[in-house]
Every structure is written in structure tokens, then in C-alpha cells.
Design brief:
By secondary structure, this protein is mostly beta strands. It starts with a strand and ends in an 8-residue tail after the last strand. The protein has one domain. The protein has a six-stranded antiparallel β-sheet, with no helix packed on it. It has strands at residues 2-5, 8-15, 18-24, 29-35, 39-44, 47-50. The mean pLDDT is 94.
């Protein structure tokens, strides 16, 4: 899937129904997601975000 905003395209690589990788027009990785049952880690550029869920998964 591709999304273009103001001339900048982002390409999304899916594994089943989850986005696992985002790249730009040049093939550079711009985002990466790691899943368990839910999203666990999201990396954008040099920033890494860790997600924690309670017993209700929220």
C-alpha cells in the first residue's frame, strides 16, 4: 500500500493485517513495528517507543 502526502510517498509492508515496515520512495526504512499479540515496539527514525498493555489489552 502507498500513501502520498504533499508529493512524499510512504510504502507500507504488511504481514497479514499488520504494518511491519514503512519505507520512503528511495527504499529507506522510515518506520518499523514489532508485534506480539499487540504492538510491542515502534521505531521511527532514531526514536523507539515501547507499548505496555494491562490484562484488558488497553
Amino acid at each position: 500500500m502507498i500513501k502520498t502526502v504533499n508529493g512524499a510517498s510512504t510504502y507500507y509492508l504488511y504481514e497479514y493485517d499488520k504494518v511491519i515496515l514503512e519505507t520512503n520512495t528511495f527504499g529507506d526504512v522510515t518506520g518499523r513495528n514489532v508485534y506480539g499479540l499487540n504492538l510491542l515496539i515502534r521505531t521511527v527514525g532514531i526514536d523507539t517507543f515501547y507499548y505496555m498493555y494491562n490484562g484488558h489489552a488497553d
